[in-house]
Design a protein that fits this description.
This protein has 652 residues and is α/β, with parallel strands linked by helices. The protein contains 25 helices and 20 strands. The strands form 4 sheets. Strands 13-12-11-14-15-16-17-18 form an 8-stranded mixed sheet, with helices on both faces. The chain has a 6-stranded mixed sheet with strand order 1-2-3-5-7-10, with helices on both faces. A hairpin with a 6-residue loop joins β19 and β20. The model has no long low-confidence stretch (mean pLDDT 95).
């Protein structure tokens, strides 16, 4: 079956992308060849006034290249595929008639490169419409003309910002950046696009003030510095993209396209690219993989017990995804503080144009706070997010069990406590599971879905489906101390604290792991988590695994002094100024000053890998892939390294 349809009406041709048997439109060799054939046909029609390119899919314009094909193609095969895409889009750009891309839904990667080859781009105002070039996040660069055409359209600084970040823009933001020319209501998009034909062929702006050699040199230098600060030179894809894009404004189209082709062929062979592509596929699997045969139940009404940092964060996120949320806490002050935090999150989202003011107001209205008992019989899912004390959680779960429907799912957000012990105090323990969100909830995409021995298949299926429905990635783990992520992370943090206590410079220690690719050093991470929280998790794990785990003594000493990390202004570092400095109190608790051991990076990374392998052998996670995905999404473990199960110590 064809993937494209060509129709003509009133002198305007329309190509409609509608991939057979798929919810998405993507580019593979067959689709590119099909598009090329239609362009040839259109070029023979002397009476045509213009061409509109649109999609028949309800939420996707074109989702880019077929990444399975792209990731497996090497050498001459990849070269031929890149050249086919470039030549096809060049022929579209060179048509004598004006061309318009009518964009509704996801227009990313090769989809946007197709749109950039058109004279004009108009986009629907739907929230489904997202526009961008995310290739650098996969270790490659836009190579079907995106690195060449975008800077010519919007100017070099804007193009570099969009390509190096891989950011996806809503329609209005894309118009503001100059990526699209107009935004129209979804229901009028096709007619609106046809109207742009009358504008004729586009005359490109020269951008002379910013595309002269002197300006380009300044822009390039600034972009390099920003990229190095962000990536520490660990990601070849963005670095290559920066040079190709910056060079493109001083080259002919043909020269720039050759540079795109040569760089993507080089990048495709790198191990970093392989791992980034692999992680993309693991994320896609997490969105679809079926863990059990049971069908999930529908969840409509939710409740969150506990209005602290995690409880309020979870309530905020559920409300942004359209769920009514009862936020319950025994303390009126906690409710007030939690709602104040939620209000700030909504204001921040509106100011960053993630949500409109109306959407923010409606989301806030979906949260119903209460410091007194209220009926909960209509709740389909209750998430307990109270303090990390097993006795308190048992009392809460026992009370909930008697006050909700017998079918209501009960979930706990505990980060390390044994969930199966909560099953002892509730009726129908098959409905109990863990939903371990990570802090901050609105930024962290991972949720550990924890299955106890009594959790039913239907409960597990419902938990996984619910996590997906709120835009998070579920990883199913077995109920055991620390679950997966915290258990793997803790030996790393404990050993880092021990190395510091033996005299290592804290900034040098953290810098070592930044150079490895972690988003922050281990001592900074301990401060961000909260030293009191870290000690609580460490005690839970030490009780379960005394031969490998221990409580970091220096952290316990800081907690005794009321120095809990960032939240108290003091931990391993001092906070509150323009930058953080080592805390003299923490330095004074060391046994002395000593150089950082040469094997620190291998030692710390190896501890995570060793614990990860134990988790796999014990069945805490189903697969090594699940472990890698969880650690990357839950801790920021260096994505280009693929996860702890891929780590190999450097050879001496």
């Amino acid at each position: 079956m064809p993937n494209l349809q060509l129709t003509t009406r009133d002198g305007i041709a329309t190509i409609t992308f509608d991939r057979d048997g798929s919810t998405a439109n993507i580019f593979d060799r067959a689709t590119l060849e099909e598009l090329g054939g239609l362009i040839t046909e259109i070029s023979t029609y002397a009476s045509l006034k213009g061409l509109v390119i649109r999609s028949a899919k309800p939420s996707i314009f074109i989702a880019g290249a077929d990444l399975r094909t792209l990731s497996s193609a090497k050498g001459d095969e990849l070269k031929a595929l890149i050249e086919l895409g470039q030549q096809t889009f060049d022929r579209l750009a060179d048509l004598r008639i004006p061309t318009v891309a009518a964009i509704h839904g996801a227009c990313v990667g090769g989809g946007l490169e197709l749109a950039l080859a058109c004279d004009w781009r108009v986009a629907s105002d739907s929230k489904k419409t997202k526009i961008g070039l995310p290739e650098t996040q996969l270790g490659i660069l836009p190579a079907w003309g995106g690195s060449t055409r975008l800077p010519r359209l919007v100017g070099l600084p804007t193009a570099l910002s969009l390509i190096l970040s891989g950011k996806l823009l809503a329609a209005k933001a894309a118009k503001h950046k100059g990526v699209v020319d107009a935004v129209a209501p979804e229901e009028n998009l096709d007619a609106f696009a046809s109207g742009w034909i009358a504008r004729g062929k586009r005359k490109m702006e020269s951008h002379a003030l910013i595309h002269n050699p002197l300006s380009v040199a300044v822009i390039r230098k600034k972009a390099r510095a920003g990229l190095m600060a962000k990536t520490r030179g660990l990601y070849p894809g963005p670095a290559a993209a920066l040079e190709v894009v910056a060079d493109s404004v001083g080259r002919s189209r043909e020269e720039s396209l050759r540079a795109e082709r040569d760089e993507i062929i080089r990048l495709a062979e790198l191990p970093e690219t392989h791992q980034l592509m692999r992680l993309f596929f693991l994320q896609e699997r997490a969105k679809k993989h079926r863990h059990v045969e049971a069908e999930p139940r529908k969840v409509e009404n939710t409740a969150v017990i506990g209005a602290g940092v995690m409880g309020s964060g979870i309530a905020y996120w559920l409300s942004t995804r359209g769920y009514p949320v009862l936020l319950r806490d025994v303390s009126a002050d906690a409710i007030a503080k939690g709602m104040a935090g939620i209000g700030k999150l909504y204001r921040d989202a509106a100011s960053r144009r993630v949500l409109t003011p109306t959407e923010a107001a409606r989301g806030l209205d979906r949260i119903h706070p209460s410091s007194v008992p209220v009926p909960m019989g209509r709740c389909d899912l209750v998430i307990e997010a109270a303090v990390e004390e097993l006795g308190i959680k048992k009392k809460i779960c026992a009370d909930l069990s008697s006050r909700v429907s017998a079918e209501t799912l009960l979930a706990t957000n505990t980060s390390a406590l044994p969930i199966h012990e909560l099953a002892e105090v509730i009726t129908n323990p098959g409905r109990l599971l863990g939903l371990h969100f990570f802090n901050p909830v609105h930024r962290m995409q991972l949720v550990e879905v924890v299955r106890t021995p009594s959790t039913s298949d239907e409960t597990l299926a419902t938990g996984v489906a619910f996590v997906r429905s709120i835009g998070k990635l579920p990883v199913v783990v077995r109920d055991s101390p620390g679950f997966l992520v915290n258990r793997i992370l803790m030996p790393y943090l404990v050993e880092a604290a021990a190395i510091f206590e033996r005299g290592a410079d804290p900034e040098a220690l953290d810098r070592t792991m930044l150079d490895f690719g972690m988003p922050m050093g281990p001592l900074r991470l301990l401060d961000e988590v909260g030293l009191d929280v870290a000690i609580h998790v460490a005690r839970t794990l030490t009780a379960a695994y005394p031969e490998r785990m221990k409580v970091p003594e220096i952290a316990a000493k800081l907690v005794e002094k009321g120095q809990l990390g960032r939240k108290s202004g003091k931990g391993f570092y001092l906070y509150g100024g323009r930058r953080e400095f080592p805390n003299p109190v923490a330095l004074g608790l060391r046994s002395g000053a000593a150089p950082l051991p040469a094997d620190t990076c291998d030692r710390l990374s190896g501890l995570m890998t060793e614990e990860a392998r134990l988790c796999l052998s014990e069945g805490v996670a189903e697969t090594a892939d699940d472990i890698d995905l969880a650690m990357v999404m839950g801790t920021g473990y260096a994505p280009f390294r693929g996860g702890p199960m891929q780590f190999r110590k450097e050879e001496p």
